[in-house]
Amino acid sequence: MRSSPAPIFRETVASVLLDALRGFAALLVCIGHWRYFFFVDYPSLPSHRHWYFLPYLMCTLGHQAVIFFFVLSGFLVGGHILQSLDRGRWSWRTYLIDRGARLWIVLLPALILGGLLDFAALHLHLAPALYAGAVHNHITFNVHATLTWKALLANCFFLQNIIAPTFGSNAPLWSLANEFWYYLIFPLGLIALRGPSSILKRIAFAALCLCLCYAVGGIVVLLGVWLLGALLAVLPVWRTTNWMRWLALALYAPFFAAIPRHHPLWLPADYALGLATFALLYVLLGARQPASGQWYERPCRTLARFSYTLYLVHFPMLMILTALLAGSQRWLPDATHLAIGLAVLAFVIVYAYVVARLTEFHTEEVRNWIKRRLSRPVATETA
User: Fold this and answer.
1) What is the pTM of this model?
2) Does residue 171 belong to any structural domain of this protein?
C-alpha cells in the first residue's frame, strides 16, 4: 500500500495525528517567540529554577518544529506530486495554482498586516530599543532597515534571504522561501529522472532544476530534510498498534528536545532530527483505522487548519504587544506577569484564527475560482 496522501487517507487516524502534530508544531514556534519577547532567559531566573525547567524547555523548540514542518510538507506535497505522475494526471498549471493559492492567500495579508503593525510601532516610537534590535532577546533586529519596498516585493515572491531580508519584523518568513523553492525543485528533478517526456525535455528539466538549486544558494542545504518526507510517500506502510505509536512518540520527544540548535552542529543536527521525524511519521502512518467519531478529531483538525496562518502572523503582533506592555525590559515569570503573558498569548492565537477565517479557510474556494477563470479549451498538459 502506498502512503501518498489520498481521499481515503484523510479519513484515517493517521491523518488526524499528523494534523495534531502540525498544529502543535505551529504552537511551539509561537510559544517560543512569546517567551523570548516577554520573559527573561533561564539563567537570569533568581531562584527555584528547577520549577521552570520544563516550561522553559518547551519554549526553545521552535526551530525543531520548523524541521518537523519540512518533513511533513515533503510527505504531503511530495506525495501528491508522485501520485499525480504515477497516475498520469500531472499538470503544471493545476499544481502551480494549488501551491500558489495555498501560499499567497495567507502570505499577502500577513505581509500587509505585519507591515502596518511595524510601521505603527516605529512611527509612534514604541520601545525604540526593541525595534532597533538593541534588546538581547535573541530574536529581534533593526526592523527599520528591513521595512522596505524591496524586502516587501522580495517576500511576495519568496526571495527572502536570496536578494533581500525577511520583511519587517517577521523573521519566521525565512522558512517559507525554503518551502516554495522545494515545491519547484522537486517536480523538476523528478520529471527529469522519471517523467514521460522526451529525452530532450528531461534534459531541459534537469538543467532548470540545477540552475534553481544554484540560484537559491544556501536555501538548498535543507532540501534533503524535505526529501525525507517525500521518501515516506513511496514506502510500503504497515499497520501499527497504539502502543507502537506511543512508544515512537516517547522516543522522539526527548530527542526532539535535546537536539542542538547552534553552530557548528546545526546542519547535522537538523538532518538527525529530520531522520527521527521520518521514523516517527512512518510509525504514525500505520494508524489506518477510520477516525470518524473520535473525540480528538475536531480540535486537531481545527488547530491544523489555521497553523499556517498562526506561523505567518504571530511575530509582528507579539512584537508590538511587547512594545506596548513590556517595553525594552523582559519580565520575571511571577504570577502577575505570567497572567498577563498568557492573556497576550491567547490573544495572538485568537488573532491568528480570525485572520485564518478570512484567508486560509477559503483556500479551496480561491483555487477553484482561479481554475474557472483560467479554464479554456487546451490540449492535454503533460510534463
Assistant:
1) 0.91
2) yes
Per-residue model confidence as pLDDT tens digits over 83-103? 999 888 999 999 999 999 999
Residue 383 lies in a domain: no
Tell whether the torsion through CA atoms of 33, 35, 39 and 44 is positive or negative: negative
Domain extent at residue 260: 7-374
Residues 277, 214: Cα–Cα separation, whole Å = 27
* CA–CA distance, 347 with 355 (Å, rounded to integer): 12
| Residue 80: inside a domain | yes
Residue 377: cis peptide before it, omega within 30 degrees of 0: no
Tell me the residue type at 300.
C
Task: State the total domains in the chain.
Answer: 1
Q: List beta partners, residue 160.
A: 164
> Which tens digit of pLDDT belongs to each residue from 32-66?
999 999 999 998 888 777 888 889 999 999 999 99
Say which range, 277-281, 284-288, 347-351, has the weakest mean pLDDT: 284-288
- Residue 2 domain flag: no
Environment class of residue 34 by beta-carbon count within 10 Å: exposed (0-12), middle (13-18) or buried (19+)? buried
Are 171 and 139 a contacting pair, CB within 8 Å?
yes
Residue bearing cell 496562518: 309
Query: At 34, which amino acid appears?
Result: W
Catalogue the long-range contacts made by 54-61 (C-beta closer than 8 Å, 24 or more residues apart). 55/333, 57/257, 58/28, 58/31, 59/31, 59/32, 59/34, 59/35, 60/32, 60/261, 61/28, 61/32, 61/256, 61/257
Rounded distance, CA 283 to CA 237, Å? Answer: 8
